Amino acid sequence: METYTFPHFPQYAAPIHIALFTNVSNSSGIRKKLIEASTMEGEEGDIARDKVDFGFIDASLVCPYHHFSGEKS
Q: Per residue in 29-39, pLDDT tens?
């Protein structure tokens, strides 16, 4: 896992943590839980969203780190 800090964000939102998971077998269940939490209302929705306070990025859509850092691959 890698951690990056964005100084232009508020202190509570400045750090992000990035991890690569492979061989994930329950991605559809995780996605379903995220969607359900995002559409729930009221206190129940707040609690559900706190439990899934993360996001996913399709790694195939992201440029390799070395393209931005100047490092050789």
A: 988 988 899 99
How far is residue 41 CA from its own chain's centroid? Answer: 22
Q: Classify the C-alpha dihedral 63-69-70-73 as positive or negative.
A: negative
pTM tops 0.70: no
Number of helices and strands (H, E) in the chain? 3, 2
- In the 3-class helix/strand/coil scheme, how is 40-68 assigned residue by residue? CCHHHHHHHHHHCCCCCCCHHHCCCHHHH
Spatial separation of the C-alpha atoms in residues 27 and 23, rounded to whole Å: 10
How many CA atoms within 13 Å lie on the side-chain side of 70?
A: 0
**Strands of 1-73, DSSP E:** 2-5, 15-18
Core vs surface per residue 54-68: b (16+ CB within 10 A) or e:
eeeeeeeeeeeeeee
